[in-house]
Design a protein that fits this description.
The complex is a heterodimer of chains A (about 260) and B (about 260). With about 260 residues, chain A is mostly helical. Chain A contains 9 helices and no strands. Helix content of chain A is about 85%, strand content about 0%. The mean pLDDT of chain A is about 90. The longest helix of chain B is centred in the last third of the chain and has 18 residues. The chains are: A mainly alpha (about 260), B alpha/beta (about 260).
Chain lengths: ~260, ~260
């Protein structure tokens, strides 16, 4: 049998490495000891420190989407559907996507650069030789933090985007808050909320794992750290769109069923 | 003076030997870094390994604690058959072997106090703050840096970082110390201070040490015995005064300073 080309071998070996890493992170979700203090610290870093950026961009997204959608709906005389349209778009796609993309850029690069610096400056080696398990302390705490915090950030982003939409609607036709809330929430189903949360969990896990993997195995000094951070952002963003597509197919199937 | 590779144990009793390496081989790709290397470390001895950059000196000590996996050969450290240890046994071994990294490898995100407390909390499970304070203060006093206790590593000079790194390693009272280029990049005065510390700790704690260096004054100040690692194998061993008389042109360059 002909041998595999070297490049193919490399890709397969890397894929095996990634699979092993993913499996290890999953096993550490349920394997004690749990790094509770470090997990809480990372949750704070992931969640609290992202609030302003995510809130700001979500508000603008809500405003822009509402303003851009209104003329089309108005031309059909369906302006009153605006809250329903915006809420469905925000909960089903915009909120999770905006949050995940921002987190991929902000958190993915941060995690990767931090672990990468620790790797090239031998801090991870120092933990290993002093008998500390760096995987549990550094990797699983970060992956758990992103996985737990992303759904919370998505809910926060959804609310802020809807608030931005309400502010826009109110400035145009003086619509009341209670009417906006009634119309917006009335069009959202449990499936929308459930699929949005599931997507957020998957996005968070992907961002955490990719950031940690690229950083944990960074090589080549400071240049390697830069490459790792860059690779973390690009790979996370691609993964987010792939996950979005897969979940969309799945949810569409459920809706039709 | 021995002028060839040592195939068998030197004339010391088995009980005095704390590290025994036989026919160790390690390659990176096509490049053989360690070739059939055999070496011993005796109880309470400071063994200096000198050699050119890239000669495999750091690889040698990293193999002792399995930071790098050897390709073949025997490594026995404190009675542990290193290449065949499982995870639990490896952790047990690592608790008895201190590793001082070339770049200090202090944890950037922690203060000096936290850096020193970290191995105590994690490995010995000490949570009593009084006990921790006492150990940290004693260790810092040993290296003469008690005043840095609340500082971050980025606020310290290179020499201070090295000393704190050594203090962090010694806080677990290891039986064996591995120093990777302890004086690299330091001025002669600071190098002298580090050399004094290495000798002081050998005398105070009766540790056995392997000191990797290409700094001949450090080798003279710290070494009870010196081995020259050239082209992946031990070319010569003896005391500093014996080594100085070498006729080997390559080795003589080290001593003609």
């Amino acid at each position: 049998m002909a041998e595999l080309p070297v490049s193919m071998k490399k890709i397969l070996l890397q894929a095996a490495d990634v699979a092993k890493f993913v499996g290890k992170t999953l096993s550490y979700f349920v394997k004690p000891p749990f790094e509770v203090k470090e997990i809480l610290k990372q949750c704070f870093a992931v969640g609290y420190r992202s609030l302003f950026l995510i809130g700001f961009t979500s508000f603008i997204a809500g405003v822009v989407f509402t303003r851009q959608s209104r003329p089309s709906l108005a031309s059909f005389g369906a302006e009153s559907w605006l809250p329903s349209l915006v809420s469905q778009a925000v909960v089903r796609a915009l909120g999770p996507l905006i949050t995940a993309l921002i987190c991929a850029g902000k958190l993915g690069s941060n995690i990767s650069a931090e672990l990468g610096s620790m790797r090239v400056s031998e801090q991870i080696d120092a933990m290993e030789v002093s008998g500390v398990r760096p995987f549990s302390y550094l990797v699983s705490s970060r992956v758990i933090a992103t996985t737990v915090m992303l759904p919370i950030l998505v809910i926060y982003a959804d609310l802020i985007a809807l608030f931005g939409s309400y502010v826009t609607v109110n400035s145009i036709n003086g619509s009341s808050l209670s009417l906006f809330i009634n119309e917006a929430l009335g069009s959202i189903t449990y499936l929308d909320i459930f699929s949005s949360i599931i997507k957020a969990i998957l996005f968070g896990y992907a961002i955490g794992v990719i950031g940690c993997y690229t950083g944990y195995y960074a090589t080549g000094g400071t240049m390697g750290v830069g490459k790792a951070a860059n690779s973390a952002v690009v790979t996370s963003m691609l993964s987010i769109f792939i996950i979005e597509l897969i979940v969309l197919q799945f949810v569409t199937f459920l809706r039709q069923g | 003076m021995k002028t060839e590779t040592i195939p068998t144990l030197p004339s010391v009793g088995e009980s005095e030997t704390v590290v025994k390496i036989r026919n160790l081989n390690k390659s990176f790709g096509e490049r053989a870094v360690l070739k059939d290397l055999s070496i011993d470390l005796r109880q309470g001895e400071n063994l200096v390994v000198i050699g050119k950059s890239g000669a495999g000196k750091s690889v040698l000590i990293k193999c002792l604690v399995r930071l790098i996996e050897p390709d073949s050969g025997e490594i026995n450290v404190l009675g542990f058959d290193v290449p065949r240890l499982d995870v639990k046994q490896l952790r047990e071994l690592r608790l008895q072997v201190g590793f001082s990294f070339q770049g200090s490898a202090l944890y950037d995100s922690m203060t000096v106090r936290e850096n020193l407390e970290f191995p105590l909390r994690r490995n010995l499970g000490i949570t009593n703050q009084e006990e921790l304070n006492q150990a940290v203060e004693e260790s810092l006093a040993d290296v003469g840096l008690s005043h840095t206790i609340e500082q971050y590593p980025t606020e310290l000079s290179g020499g201070m970082k090295k000393r704190i790194g050594i203090a962090r390693t010694l806080i677990l009272k290891p039986k064996i110390m591995l120093y990777d280029e302890p004086t690299a990049g330091l001025d002669p005065i600071t190098s002298g201070e580090i050399n004094d510390l290495i000798v002081k700790f050998r005398d105070k704690y009766n540790t056995s040490s392997i000191i990797i260096t290409h700094d001949i004054s450090s080798a003279r100040a710290t070494g009870d015995r010196i081995v020259a690692l050239l082209e992946g194998t031990i070319k010569m061993e003896g005391t500093f005064d014996e080594m100085k008389l070498t006729k080997d042109p390559e080795l003589a360059q080290f001593f003609n300073y």
